[in-house]
Specification:
4 helices; three-stranded mixed β-sheet; 8% strand; 131 residues; 3 strands; 49% helix; mainly alpha
Length: 131
């Protein structure tokens, strides 16, 4: 199972999906930004989404629960609003043709609610072992 979370919002905001569903969701969002990513942060977000989708697809153990928290995204304080909008827009576009639209919409709302004061200075991307 994979849990999409936002520690600042608490457990009531969590979304729990199978690894296969998570892999599809993450890949759909990555595909939605693939042709639009230009800035360094946008390209890194694309790589991070691809990395997470691949890792979720490779996790076969029913006992392994992986969590992806909104705070894992390497937001920057100076560009947080634009970065958040870029991701929200990508999720909204991915939702249009997805069979997992409800879960994507809940993840989008979780990201919309992510407070600006949660952004950590100097936050770096965390890569899985698949890269």
């Amino acid at each position: 199972m994979l849990v999409f979370s936002n520690d600042r919002l608490g457990p009531s905001a969590e979304i729990v999906v199978s690894n296969d569903v998570a892999a599809v969701m993450l890949q759909q969002v990555a595909d939605a930004i693939r042709s639009r990513a230009e800035a360094r942060w946008e390209l890194e977000l694309l790589r991070w989404l691809d990395d997470r989708a691949l890792a979720a697809g490779r996790t076969t153990s029913a006992l392994a629960t992986v969590t992806i928290d909104v705070s894992e995204i390497a937001w920057t304080r100076d560009h947080f609003d634009a970065q958040r909008w870029f991701l929200i827009d990508a999720i909204a576009r991915a939702t249009i043709h997805s069979e997992h639209a409800a879960a994507l919409d809940r993840w989008r709302r979780m990201i919309e609610a992510h407070p600006r004061d949660s952004v950590q200075f100097g936050r770096r991307w965390s890569w899985s072992l698949t890269t």
